[in-house]
From TrEMBL:
Stretch list, region Domain I, interacts with DnaA modulators: 1-92
HAMAP family with a match to the protein in the record: DnaA_bact
PANTHER family: CHROMOSOMAL REPLICATION INITIATOR PROTEIN DNAA
Subcellular location, record wording: Cytoplasm
CDD domains: AAA, Bac_DnaA_C
InterPro entries associated with the record: AAA+_ATPase, Chromosome_initiator_DnaA, Chromosome_initiator_DnaA-like, Chromosome_initiator_DnaA_CS, DnaA_C, DnaA_dom, DnaA_N_sf, P-loop_NTPase
Assembly, per entry: Oligomerizes as a right-handed, spiral filament on DNA at oriC.
Region Domain IV, binds dsDNA: start-end pairs: 330-451
Major subcellular location class: cytoplasm
Signal sequence, start to end: none
Family note: Belongs to the DnaA family.
Residue ranges of every copy of the Chromosomal replication initiator DnaA C-terminal domain listed in the record: 359-428
Name of the protein this chain belongs to: Chromosomal replication initiator protein DnaA
């Protein structure tokens, strides 16, 4: 990598500005106003970092990022991306991240893996079996399903599975290096590396790992960091390192993430993880009760039924409900935790009221009643208009009122994939614009649903 001195950076930037002035349509004083106080902070292998003084300058100059990159290519003879930073961002990052890379291993390696999240204590059922099987598969065949992308709502075990992969590898293949990282930490690292001119070192560090486990990728929104990430991602893939990513939505529905990344995320294996069904939720509760200190507390079967029914949409809440119950049991010391005790404990819990909120099942039911169909008809693959159109309406309503991801709606409608659901939704949107009859039907159904 070429290291430029301050003087060289200064020379290069002077030439860049001269060229830019000729191609941008600014008057002299305008150009001076926008670019006059900017300077070139650094050029590394992939990026030129330009520093400006105010947010407004950053916004305006960012509009010309492509032109600036082209001029850089002409002057320095190689293609680089351009980043615009505020002086304040540079100052802040330099302050907090001087030691970031030396901390890297202790901060992001090993210590971050939660030992308690293993495959052994991950309870499987229909809703999460595919995700668990895929997670195990990457442990046995690293690089074969690359990247593995696990998506689903909050609290359904995505992080648990990532850690389970890491723990499994540590135990069974200790020579392989695993890096678990939360996306927001990754963004901080990338930005700091840019501002402390340590991008190459960071890349080299990350490339020493065999498994990169990235949690909650939807948070990788900072656009400047996406470019470096893209670069690192490609290098890891080229070296056949295993990448596992989690997100709350299917890769194609990610917002604020560049298309080239989205298409790469979709190119491996994407598996959904859903809310546990009743029996799985109960099995999770039993698992979470194992090894608790308060073994002597008796808990009735119907209590597990109650919790599994009310809280299964989020395993984190399911766990929380159990903790609360045990805590209250220690406090009030009932002979046995029974349904009466539980309903009293949770009587003011807003979660219980979730029952009255609109669900996909209610939407399907009301649409079926309206059109005289059965549940299995609306969920079927039938293309007959009398069945397909009501299905489009129900899908449209799920998206509109529940804001459900397309992949999740697909699960409600006979396991269709998200692209089919997306096209169904678009079709109904178009039909509603074109035909009054659909609009009227939609309003009547919405009135019945009370929305
Ligand atoms: N199938 C399961 N078996 C056992 N525990 C589970 C299961 N699913 C989830 N859990 C537990 O539920 C809690 C929440 O899970 P986790 O943090 O993995 O969810 P998440 O999908 O990553 O959520 P978020 O998107 O909010 O990060 C954890 O304590 C985890 O151990």
């Amino acid at each position: 990598m070429v290291h430029y001195t301050e003087g060289q950076l200064n020379d290069i930037y002077t030439q860049v500005l001269d060229h830019l002035k000729k191609i941008l349509n600014f008057r002299d004083e305008e150009f001076k106003y926008w670019f006059g106080n900017s300077y070139l902070f650094d050029i590394d292998d992939d990026f030129a970092s330009i520093v400006v003084t105010t947010k407004v300058h950053k916004t305006i100059i960012t509009n010309f990022i492509e032109e600036i990159a082209t001029v850089f290519e002409q002057i320095i003879g190689k293609k680089v991306g351009c980043h615009i930073f505020l002086q304040a961002e540079i100052n802040q990052s330099i302050k907090i991240s001087k030691n970031n890379l030396s901390d890297f291993d202790s901060k992001f390696f090993n210590t971050k893996l939660k030992e308690e999240y293993t495959f052994d204590n991950f309870v499987t059922g229909k809703s999460n079996r595919d995700a668990e099987a895929a997670a195990r598969a990457v442990c046995y065949y690293p690089g074969q399903y690359n990247p593995l992308f696990i998506f689903g709502n909050s609290g359904l075990g995505k992080t648990h599975l990532l850690h389970a992969i890491g723990n499994f590898i540590h135990e069974n293949n200790p020579e392989l290096r695993v890096l678990y990282i939360y996306s927001e930490d990754l963004v901080t690292l990338l930005i700091n590396a840019m501002t402390t001119k340590t991008v190459e070192e960071l890349k080299d560090k990350i490339l020493t790992y065999d498994f990169l486990l990235i949690d909650d990728i939807q948070r990788l929104k900072q656009s400047t960091s996406q470019e470096i990430f893209f670069n690192i991602y490609n290098k890891l893939m080229n070296e056949n390192k295993q990448i596992v990513i989690t997100s709350d939505i299917h890769p194609t529905e990610l917002k604020g993430i560049e298309n080239r990344l989205i298409s790469r995320f979709s190119s491996g294996l994407s598996v959904p993880i859903g809310s546990p069904e009743f029996e799985t939720a109960k099995a999770i509760l039993r698992k979470k009760m194992e090894g608790r200190q308060n073994d002597n507390i008796m808990i009735n079967e119907e209590v597990l039924d109650f919790l599994a029914t009310r809280f299964s949409s989020d395993v984190r809440k399911l766990e929380g409900s159990l903790n609360e119950l045990f805590f209250k049991a220690i406090l009030y010391n009932p002979e046995v935790i029974d349904l009466e005790f539980v309903t009293e404990i949770f009587k003011d819990d807003p979660q219980i009221k979730v029952e009255s909120e609109l669900t996909a099942a209610q939407i399907k039911q009301v649409v079926c009643e309206f059109y005289g169909l059965t549940k299995s008809q609306i969920e079927s693959k039938s293309r007959t208009a009398t069945i397909a159109n009501p299905r489009h309406i129900a899908i449209y309503l799920c998206r509109k009122h529940l804001n459900m991801p397309f992949a999740k709606i697909g699960m409600e409608f006979g396991g269709r994939d998200h692209t089919t659901i997306m096209s169904s939704y678009e079709k109904m949107k178009k039909m509603l614009k074109e035909k009054d009859t659909f609009q009227q039907a939609l309003h009547k159904i919405e009135r019945k649903l009370g929305v």
